[in-house]
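Batch manifest, entry 17 of 40.
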Amino acid sequence: MDALERQALLLDAIRRVTLPLVRLLINEGIGYQSFISQMKPVFIEQALAQVQERGEKDTDSALSLRSGIARKDINAWRQNPLLGKKTSKRSIPSEVFTRWISDPVYELPDGQPRKLPRVGPAPSFESLSRSVNQDVHPLSVLNELIRLGLAALESGEHGEEQVGLLNSAFVPQHDLSELLALFVDNLSAHLETATHNLQAHTPARLEQAAYAGGLTPDSAQVLSDLSRQLWSNMLDDFMTEARRLHAQDAGQGTRLVRLGAYFHDGLQPSQPTDS
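Output type: structure tokens
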């Protein structure tokens, strides 16, 4: 297969992969021109990364050749590479939540996250919040977790205030910025794994899926419930080993590992009939 045939197959595959993303954009009122304007710097940045990886000379012509973007646009990007670009990092509530479910200090003997006194020495919500960030008041972090539907303020046995988690996964129900952060983290990690394997890098990374067709909606729901239980079991095993390795490495390693799962329930494609 020559290069042009490979490119045609890849473009067709990318078109099909982006169908749900395009539906999302249209549903949110975002059209083609707005999307393309955001993609232009991405093509330039990735072309630059390839040039640098190969030790080649960084010129506008080299970037234009690889990205397909005009040299005048590349020059404008060099003058202001942050134009129209918004970067974000994981929020403080997300960091607090992650530490709460992963740090042994804040877990029960059975591995479940413990309810924490709202204030006081560790283990408390106040100490947990301050271990993540000293600048934002713990009450502000708590209020945000409550607003996101992830935690609740309760009364303990003796009337003291304590905080409990309402979910075992950081999936905020009411905050678009947090949902989009998860969207980016999860999908980009999955795509990086898939493209790693597509380019035949070794060793290949885990990227598998199972499917079953010909099911009724009730049967699909049974499998949906089962998938959540299987994920919960896998997550417990994964986090137990992750905590052990984090302690072994003294938290000084440079690698970030992500393990994901998804469940998809859609209409089965119609089968062609014999004429």
